[in-house]
Amino acid sequence: MSSEQAAEEMQQLNTSSESLEAQREARKQAKAAEKAAKEAAKAARAAQRGQKQSSALEPEADDPLAAHYGDPELVQSQAQTERVWTDVADLTPKLDGQTVLVRARVHTVRGKGKSAFLVLRQATATVQAVLFVDDVTVSKGMVKYASAIPRESIVDLEGRVVLPQAPIEACSQTQVELKVTALHAISRAAPLPFEVTDASRSAEAVRKAAEAGELLGTVGQDVRLDNRFVDLRTPANQAIFRVQSAVCQLFRESLQARDFIEIHTPKLLSGASEGGASVFQFDYMGRPGCLAQSPQFYKQMAICSDMGRVFEIGPVFRAENSYTHRHLCEFTGLDMEMTIKESYHEVLDVLDALFVHMFTGLNERCARELAVISEQYPFEPLKFLPKSLRLTFAEGIEMLQAAGYDVDPLGDLNTELERALGKLVKEKYNTEFYILHRYPLGIRPFYTMPCKDDNRYSCSFDIFIRGEEIISGAQRIHDPALLAQRAQELGLPVDSIQSYIDSFKYGAPPHGGAGVGMERVVMLFCGLDNIRKTSMFPRDPKRLTP
Amino acid sequence: MSSEQAAEEMQQLNTSSESLEAQREARKQAKAAEKAAKEAAKAARAAQRGQKQSSALEPEADDPLAAHYGDPELVQSQAQTERVWTDVADLTPKLDGQTVLVRARVHTVRGKGKSAFLVLRQATATVQAVLFVDDVTVSKGMVKYASAIPRESIVDLEGRVVLPQAPIEACSQTQVELKVTALHAISRAAPLPFEVTDASRSAEAVRKAAEAGELLGTVGQDVRLDNRFVDLRTPANQAIFRVQSAVCQLFRESLQARDFIEIHTPKLLSGASEGGASVFQFDYMGRPGCLAQSPQFYKQMAICSDMGRVFEIGPVFRAENSYTHRHLCEFTGLDMEMTIKESYHEVLDVLDALFVHMFTGLNERCARELAVISEQYPFEPLKFLPKSLRLTFAEGIEMLQAAGYDVDPLGDLNTELERALGKLVKEKYNTEFYILHRYPLGIRPFYTMPCKDDNRYSCSFDIFIRGEEIISGAQRIHDPALLAQRAQELGLPVDSIQSYIDSFKYGAPPHGGAGVGMERVVMLFCGLDNIRKTSMFPRDPKRLTP
């Protein structure tokens, strides 16, 4: 990449804060931001002048242990040594007595006369490191240096693994601590917009402390998101994005084992302004372009191109002005499409096996991550069956009616009714994951295959986790004449979809597929309350930064 | 997805042809398109009136074998039967004498009096199916029906596997053929924009035929791309996109085995119009937005957020007006970023292992696909070493100078010099895959870490396949003061990148990474001449459809 490209790239980044929150939160945020900005400006000026932020950066001149502490020169690929590094998560009693080298973040630091206590953090793992002045391995200057390292700085620390008399309950590594023999801050943190410890606290812990008369800090959603690169450091967030990574991997594993191939469809499409409010439009070399709202038509074209079974993991763009707990303007779509011999149940068979594989895999491979998330955001493990429940839409309506809900048997279910049905299903079938199929034709897209036996219904389905929809899918119409007819029946402008219809006219196999909202899967599997918690840098109608 | 969303989605799709080619090609194309359009319109009208295109759709009324042929009702999820289907690729002599059921495309069809010969195609596999009137299993009406099925239609065919006296050289399944016992066209193809057989031919075959006085059809790039959903059916294209799928899978495998986690960074960024010509800009709910040119800054933020080792596979958008064989306006980026302890060579170690794993994996897992590609586009297997060659930029310059090239030792290498160096390296080291590192600082982005020992150079690298760059990477500057200083030195507006610089001020680990152009890897590994061959629906300055 050239320097010019880099220059343009940087202009794309802008982390200016956008307040969304109530008055109270806004005031708090403004104050914190102002304070942080002032301190940051001061630190930056100092840093740019090449001055030291603290007098404790360098060892004291006459200290015989001077080589064991102090800020080293910048890591700049000078050389590669044979030094061996240990991960914090690997610090266990079996290393007792050994000297280890660790690079980690300073989670907390506390100087106390002739001693200093640090907690080091690496992702979700923490360990305590201690310094006591003995003038043999630890000098006064060294303790002073350690005590002055700002939280969130990154240090290279050498220490001897020892077994503490009592477990260190505040750390993930409860059975060991490190007696520091060398300490070098390789990257010092400026004053933080908020404390990672405050951002890591559960609501329950805050409530309990309040009952005991102690006021613990919390951090509002907007302050977190404005400083997402700090917020993401909390143990729960470290775990959430590892779970997210596993969701994608498990999705692929299951499909690849069934001969699906991965495709990449274009996100830049041609389109005029008539595209409607929910499409992002842009200028493409002087022509109107818009961003793909789904890979739907392209994955169908892949099927018409004999790809057989395809999947894609990629961004999906929706210019919808919905500021809810479960909508984003950009999310990650897990999409699949496949030929079928006879029925959309073949698609459901694949999805059923896929999600059982995914849930089982998450519980097995991400047990530690799920426990970490649960500490801050408590949740019950998802109830699911080895073979997923399939209910027809009509059966769902019956259950709702029997429970006293007034529902239109051929209308759509709103969020409230979906939740209610989820509850009834859980009570009756003991599962929070189920399939609802044969939706009314009238509430599905024009390209959905109608049911042969009763054309009020369609060969379609939604799939739910904890009463919220995560997947929508169907058998698609592969016959160009029927497709044109359905478009006409729904009053769609056939002209504008002629090329889509045409793609089926050179021989098209029966096929079906589905689209999954990845962030929703993570949110609902982990019982989280907001989709912004499962998007690394969320985009909604009010947020486009950082 | 709602009907309204679907309606908007369709408007995004537009396959109008865009002529790019020379006068001759354009004339040919226009003629073909006109003809296709006329025939398509006729077929569509006929289909919409519910009329039959051919009198041969239905069995003859008095034919006792009437149940064995004819167009069946539309596959509409009526029921699921226990019928067992066989893939064309699985039709081998060990099935001799068995009756099988196949759903496949009609590749070619030839009626000849009382017999008909079909070639069925599934992805890259083909098999011959034959009908001879015997009035026991095959009637006259059946042969007439078979003979009239248009090429590229999809049929359900039942037949007995027999061993032909001589191998069927024209098919991939040379050792067997099918004696048809039932035949039903489930999706009939309209007249094609071009023949798949013409699009599947190698230049060599056309040349040889011409020498023998025979004029074989070929299909130009624009006609292919205008009708990509037909073009993608050629065996070479079927193979190319399976190789592409494997490239992504092998990339991930190698990184996941090394504890990388998968992330999804936003493609919608905030940005003003000053962003420059190579950024796509759009309106984001009333604010200026632009599309991500690379996940660079976000993957660095993930590192500053303690993700440790991350990768992303996703679209990258470049509004560059470069109409070359290796540039696209939208391509798939394989990106990775990782903390390092000491040196960018740690990144190179990961990339070296990754690409050796990828190339070995492709040769092993995609042997058949590579052979199929080679049939239409002949290429030599890539030469690579078990441990990849690393040359410094200075060493590369020396090799070029020794070979008589006049090169600036601190300037950038143009495409011609890169190719020349690739040739020299291949001659000297017998590899077409190598790493060039320690690029001059002046030609790299401002965020590239300078070399400590000689600041004319930087901690950066490019990686080449067959003399063309596929990867660019480096150690990044993690010190906010140095980052600001470098931006100033290069005359960049520090204000506009303040938020990027700020993301490093809360403690940032040393780190480095790289970005790989996925379509380039596939193109160069397979020795293809144009990146449009490895993008499913390519986007360039002149093409935004289909």
From TrEMBL, chains A, B:
Residues 1-20 have a biased composition (Polar residues). One of its GO terms (cellular component) is aminoacyl-tRNA synthetase multienzyme complex. Keywords: Aminoacyl-tRNA synthetase, ATP-binding, Cytoplasm, Ligase, Nucleotide-binding, Protein biosynthesis. InterPro entries: Aa-tRNA-synt_II (IPR004364), aa-tRNA-synth_II (IPR006195), aa-tRNA-synth_II/BPL/LPL (IPR045864), Asp-tRNA_synthase_2 (IPR004523), Asp/Asn-tRNA-synth_IIb (IPR002312), NA-bd_OB-fold (IPR012340), NA-bd_OB_tRNA (IPR004365). Residues 43-53 have a biased composition (Low complexity). Its EC number is 6.1.1.12. It is found in: Cytoplasm. GO terms for biological process: aspartyl-tRNA aminoacylation. SUPFAM superfamilies: Class II aaRS and biotin synthetases, Nucleic acid-binding proteins. This is aspartate--tRNA ligase.
